[in-house]
Amino acid sequence: MKSALALVLFIAMQLPLMNQWGAVAYYRVNQDYIAKNLCENRDKPMLDCNGQCYLAKQLKAAEEKEQKSNSERLEKMPEVVLAFQAIQPIFKATFLQISVVEDHFATPSFVVSNNDKGFFHPPRA
Fold first, then answer.
1. Which of 23, 30, 35, 82 has the CB geometry, 3.0–4.6 Å to 58, for a possible disulfide?
2. How far is 19 from 60, CA to CA, in rounded Å?
3. CA distances from 106 to 8, 61, 103, 110, 113 (A)
4. pTM across the whole model
5. Number of folded domains in the chain?
6. What whole-number distance in Å separates Cα of residue 44 and Cα of residue 51?
7. 3-state secondary structure of 119
8. Over the stretch 37-95, which tens digit does the pLDDT of each residue have?
């Protein structure tokens, strides 16, 4: 039962999209009748129109109808207003500025100093 309902809803949603396909299908099925009776260029067989002018008119009319219905839907839609308030921080962030001072008088580590006092011995208890 659910799958049948889903199929019906799917087809109902696709009907507006199939409007142009319906015009093309109608043209293909009735191409001979359209070419003989409804074509604007039926008196000019050298143009080889075969009712394509009628199809173009139908497609243009379907597109205009779709655009009109879309604009009407947009006009009927309620306007939603979203308001945003800026979030204010609870705590003030304070940043410490640490400056690194380079010591030019320090002995580089690769220079061997003569102040070698031997190995460190911890105090005895």
1. 23
2. 11
3. 85, 88, 6, 12, 12
4. 0.45
5. 1
6. 12
7. coil
8. 888 877 777 777 888 888 888 888 888 888 887 777 777 777 777 777 777 766 666 66
